[in-house]
Design brief:
By secondary structure, the chain is mainly beta.
């Protein structure tokens, strides 16, 4: 779809259109603009979940919502699916001084992910920015780090491949995650999208954080940009969370652990000013995606 056609399609919408549901089932029976909102919405959803998992090293290796070997009595985290190239951890904060993790699937294959399977392959380098003083921070370099989702009936298969950097800093009262990533996102039945993402995420916990501890409930405030390119589509979108996202640590046995909140990506879509909204509505419930004209 070229930009002019997309602009005309969006202009023909009423003042807002909202789609609720789960996964690519949303595409059935909706129009081109709705499909576009879903594609951007699903991409934003995936990036929120990946960012949430990046708030601890343990969940960077085994993402939130995956299952691995159960934790032993002396540990708060499960045995990861991948081992570091070096175990050196001079300050004992759980972040290696400088190590590379090479993911392969298996063993980094997780069943039950949105009812299907999640495979992770690629390289993740983790460096401790201060190896002589224990803390929450790390510097990460992602190289061809690919997550592949396959639905149980294999009708939906898509990849998210990330290259770039993440930097985590913080204290017991909160965390700041900065990401500069180049992403290739595939879609079932749609062309691939190239996404340049530059985000800052602030996590405010409901209770104090503990080094090497699991992530407590809290809020996510996200601000930044995504530069979206797909075919003739090229949109630079401002991303914000007008209503902070609520992470519920008590929400288990599901990938979707955001219980409430709203994210929006605003910009010019072809010739139409508008906003793609992602709205979370409960633990275990997939968010809704929609487009709203701002003209």
């Amino acid at each position: 779809m070229n930009r002019a056609r997309l602009g005309l399609t969006l202009a023909a919408l009423v003042s807002s259109a909202t789609i609720y549901g789960c996964g690519d089932d949303l595409l059935e029976g909706v129009g081109p603009a709705d499909e576009f909102a879903v594609d951007i919405g699903e991409t934003l959803r995936d990036e929120v979940e990946a960012a949430l998992s990046s708030l601890t090293l343990g969940s960077s290796l085994d993402p939130i919502g995956t299952t691995q070997a159960p934790p032993d009595a002396a540990s708060v985290v499960a045995v990861p699916c991948v081992s570091p190239s070096s175990a050196a951890d001079s300050d004992g904060d759980g972040v290696p001084d400088d190590a590379t993790y090479l993911f392969t699937a298996p063993p980094c294959r997780f069943t039950g992910w949105r009812g299907g399977t999640l495979d992770i392959v690629g390289s993740l380098r983790i460096q401790d920015p201060s190896s002589t003083s224990a803390g929450f921070g790390y510097e990460a370099t992602l190289t061809g780090l690919r997550s592949r989702f396959t639905s149980a009936d294999t009708k939906v298969i898509y990849d998210v491949t990330r290259n770039g950097t993440r930097t985590l800093s913080g204290s017991v009262s909160g965390l700041l995650l900065t990401a500069e990533l180049q992403i290739i996102r595939t879609f079932a039945g749609h062309p691939d999208a190239a996404v340049d993402k530059q985000w800052n995420l602030t996590f405010t916990p409901a209770t104090q954080l503990q080094i090497n501890g699991t992530l407590p409930s809290g809020t996510l405030d996200i601000a930044g940009t995504i530069d979206w390119t797909r075919g003739t589509e090229h949109f630079v979108l401002q991303v914000t969370t007008p209503t902070p996202l609520q992470y519920d640590a008590g929400c288990t046995d599901t990938v979707q652990r955001i219980s409430a909140g709203n994210m929006q990506a605003s910009g010019t879509f072809g010739e139409q000013e508008g906003i793609v909204r992602v709205t979370w509505r409960g633990c275990g419930t997939e968010p809704g995606f929609g487009f709203e004209s701002t003209e």
